[in-house]
Amino acid sequence: MDTFTITTTVTFHPLRVPPRCRKPRRVEETFTVTTDIPSVTAADAPVACIFDPGYQRLTHDETDEIALRTFDGSFYIQRRDVNAGDEDFPSERTWESRETDQVAAEREAHGRLWKYLVIDGKVWETIGEPYYSVNTYGTGNNHGGTGLSLNLLSAGQDVSSLDYAATELEAAIDGALEVAEARRDTEYFEHIRSFKGVNVILPEAFRIIPRDMRKTSKEAEVRVVADAMSAALSGPLDREKIRTVREALKELEDIMFNHGIDEVSR
């Protein structure tokens, strides 16, 4: 695989003990580090999905559709029309680090660039996986409302029972209508039905597990925890068993609440 190499001159400020001194002082030092950014073709990074024009969380351009491409398990967006090696994305640059340790400063310099990918000479930037969320506002009965939104998954973020993969638009709309009906947000039915979502081109590129599959998995997890709790209650009780059961109950409550599980058959 080809790469686009960026050489960064890093300035950092380690603590050094000057000659004939006892106390360390901050000094300015520099070093260079190279970062290799993958450079691929459009065939290597196919289009995973397309957003409608004007989705402002992605770009300020409201005239063109917005494509997200996928490469090596991540999604990428072209926020601006920039060529690798241009003035806006040079192969040589400088970076002023506040770190006092060279290893940390080097890691920082790399980290600023690892989010990029070069596709057919153009610069693309990593972005979170799209997903849908059912949102509620106010107390219901059309005081506030129920809606459906398109979001981007952040690093380390977990999806909830009201979140749906980008590949399950119809299920997301049905789920939002179900919530709206339960809250008697009748004025929002048509708004929910008209929600467009994204045009998924490559379903296999998406990593978020569909909601029903997540729920089934969590129901199985609930059964395992419940069985362990039942086993702990067998035989004579002691304080350690009571503590174990209390922790298991808290775990069960968290799982069932976070994943919208009201009841699990055993």
Rounded mean pLDDT score: 91
User: In terms of per-residue confidence, which ranges show pLDDT below 50 for 5 or more consecutive residues?
Assistant: none
What's the total helix number?
5
The side-by-side strand order for the widest beta sheet comes to 8-1-4-9-10-7-6-5-14
Shape call:
extended
| Overall structural domain count | 3
Tell me the radius of gyration: 26 Å
Structural class: alpha+beta
Helix-strand string: EEEEEEEEHEEEEEHHEHH
Count the beta strands: 14
Describe this structure in words.
- The protein has helices at 102-111, 169-182, 189-193, 211-233, 239-258, and strands at residues 2-12, 15-16, 25-26, 29-40, 47-51, 66-71, 74-77, 92-96, 116-119, 122-127, 130-140, 143-152, 163-165, 199-200.
- It has five helices and 14 strands.
- With 266 residues, the protein is an alpha+beta fold.
- α4 runs antiparallel to α5 (239-258).
- The longest helix is centred in the C-terminal third of the chain and has 23 residues, at 211-233.
- It has a nine-stranded mixed beta sheet with strand order 8-1-4-9-10-7-6-5-14.
- Helices cover 27% and strands 31% of the residues.
- The chain starts with a strand and ends in an 8-residue tail after the last helix.
- It folds into three domains: 2-127, no CATH class; 130-208, no CATH class; 212-258.
- The protein is extended.
